[in-house]
Amino acid sequence: MGTLRQMEYLLAVVEEESFTRAAHRLSVSQATLSHQLKALEETVGQPLVERLPGRVLPTQMGREYLPHAITALRSAAAARRAVMTGHDGEPVSLRLAVLPSLASGVLPGAIRAWRDAHPDAEVSMLEFLDGDRLPREMLRGVADLAVGPVPDGWPGEVYPLYREELVVVLPADDVCADATGTPLDLALLADRDWVLHSESNPLASLVLRACARAGFTPRAAVSTHHPAAAVRLAAAGLGPALVPRASVSDDVAVTWRVPRPEVGCDLAAYTRGPAAPHVMAFVRALGGTELGR
């Protein structure tokens, strides 16, 4: 049948359609990944993947084998969670899946508060830069709780959190800097080149909608996936950027203003099924409300 590690490697290769990306995702060398997958194929007796130009796809046997591998991996994960308990039965680990661009502001304080109540606990955080990948990975069971925008039609439980407001970031000496902090009409920036977000980042669509409401489509000077990078690029004078307020650190010489019209994103924590007590404790630390979907 193969080992659980070999099954994990196979699943990563199939999902990433690449040995290189799968090795990076698993933090192993490509040689190790290839060796383990070859060993699994020898155990099964047939090739499980085929290398095509630019991608790797499962063979017919690979497609038949994958559901069994996924079931085995999920069962093993459930078994680990069942035995990883303290003397009072409280789980000692919490796995979070997050979009760092939209959840960085609330997470550090919530993790600290949760660990104050669970001093022996370990928190592992998986950060997904691709907004579409987060719900897919959650459905696979990679984490106990996700924090980010709730995907349409989510089948599990949803715990509303708060609205992440976006701000306009400009160089400190920009003509649109305003010490009074009054909202900035985005139409004043219509003729500028902008620092935009990569398409896979959920912030990208928010920025485009905000600019459209102000009557223009922003021209890109440069695009990046990381809000912190967008802040520094804006500070360098490459163009205004719209980012979560939590992304603007004190060590970068910029000015920021609330845009008019205001723009933001409703954030929530969500799970595949009813949240376990230790997960609900973290939801409360986030400030969420115990609501169903």
Automatic annotation (TrEMBL):
<keyword id="KW-0805">Transcription regulation</keyword>
<keyword id="KW-0238">DNA-binding</keyword>
<dbReference type="InterPro" id="IPR036388">
    <property type="entry name" value="WH-like_DNA-bd_sf"/>
</dbReference>
<dbReference type="InterPro" id="IPR005119">
    <property type="entry name" value="LysR_subst-bd"/>
</dbReference>
<comment type="similarity">
    <text>Belongs to the LysR transcriptional regulatory family.</text>
</comment>
<dbReference type="Pfam" id="PF03466">
    <property type="entry name" value="LysR_substrate"/>
</dbReference>
<feature type="domain" description="HTH lysR-type">
    <location>
        <begin position="1"/>
        <end position="59"/>
    </location>
</feature>
<dbReference type="Pfam" id="PF00126">
    <property type="entry name" value="HTH_1"/>
</dbReference>
<protein>
    <submittedName>
        <fullName>LysR family transcriptional regulator</fullName>
    </submittedName>
</protein>
<keyword id="KW-0804">Transcription</keyword>
<dbReference type="InterPro" id="IPR000847">
    <property type="entry name" value="LysR_HTH_N"/>
</dbReference>
<dbReference type="InterPro" id="IPR036390">
    <property type="entry name" value="WH_DNA-bd_sf"/>
</dbReference>
